[in-house]
Design a protein that fits this description.
about 290 residues; Aminopeptidase; 13 strands; globular
Length: about 290
């Protein structure tokens, strides 16, 4: 639907905490699953811009600085009644102005790639969204000497380091915030932390992510742990299409329901080749 009344007065201003209920209603209007608590979580890690007319908030864009050289952009929504009026473009321009020369990442919904390309973004990956409640978790055997264990109180810095190595840029602030709202499991070998997976409330159910591991087998073990503990619950996993796990999840009863494009503006990060993120935190935070 295009903007039926483009003459309405628009203002753009910083996103305030008091805007959360209006932003949540906006995401409901476009059929996004986020709870008000999910909005509050992502806002506490960054900031954003709202577009507002006399009816209230009609557009949002949030951004997150990830260290000194990278950033993420997400929660870009425009009211269906104001679509096509240039609001999304203006929100993007204003949000990006605050990032300077940082490399910026985002996940493009279907049909939005041309707009982001106009701002210098290029596709670098795709993310498959899997979800469901009728899954059948398998038992995955780990290599000798390795085990899964609950996260300890002193694991935080090591988790942040693993997440940052897998991404190629700073993920410490995001990881620390997740530990306040998520349960976690660690992959351990004689006290050495090899990987981890977090599990938290999101939308109508729960989400597994991030999942950081050296290889697909160990990632499967981490994911299977959470599935086995939560049979019959609605669970979501967002993972890179080249992770090698999409067909596996389909076979378990967690079908792929959507695919989005990861886009970046700036230099490609230097990831640690011995480690990777087999599932992301969210399509907003990466």
């Amino acid at each position: 639907m295009s903007d039926l009344n483009p003459s309405r007065t628009l203002i753009y201003r910083p996103f305030a905490e008091t805007d959360l209920p209006a932003a949540h209603r906006l995401s409901e209007a476009v059929k996004w699953p986020h709870r008000l608590e999910d909005w509050r979580f992502v806002l506490q890690l960054g900031g954003g811009i709202v577009a507002e007319d006399e009816t209230g908030v009609v557009g949002t864009a949030l951004g997150w600085r990830l260290g000194e050289s990278h950033a993420a952009l997400g929660m870009v929504i425009v009211s269906p009644e104001r679509a096509g009026g240039g609001i999304e473009r203006e929100l993007l321009a204003r949000a990006l102005d605050g990032f300077g020369t940082r490399t910026v990442f985002l996940h493009a919904m279907p049909g939005r790639e041309p707009l982001y390309a106009a701002f210098g973004f290029e596709p670098i990956d795709t993310i498959n969204q899997h979800q469901g409640a009728a899954f059948r978790p398998p038992l995955i055997s780990l290599p000798p000497g390795e085990r899964l264990r609950p996260l300890g109180t002193n694991d935080g810095p090591r988790l942040a380091a693993l997440a940052s190595r897998a991404a190629g840029y700073e993920r410490g602030a995001v990881t620390d915030a997740l530990l306040d709202v998520a349960n976690g499991i660690a992959l351990d070998r004689d006290g050495e932390l090899l990987g981890f997976a977090l599990f938290r409330r999101f939308g109508p159910g729960h989400v597994i992510g991030p999942v950081i591991a050296p290889d697909a087998l160990r990632a499967q073990a981490l994911i299977s742990h959470w599935l086995a503990l939560n049979e019959g619950m609605f669970v979501r996993v967002d993972l890179p299409s080249d992770s090698g796990l999409s067909d596996w999840l389909d076979g378990l009863g967690l079908p792929r329901v959507d695919t989005v494009v990861t886009m970046a503006r700036g230099a490609t990060p230097a990831r640690d080749p011995a480690l990777r993120a087999f599932a992301i935190v969210s399509q907003a935070l990466g």
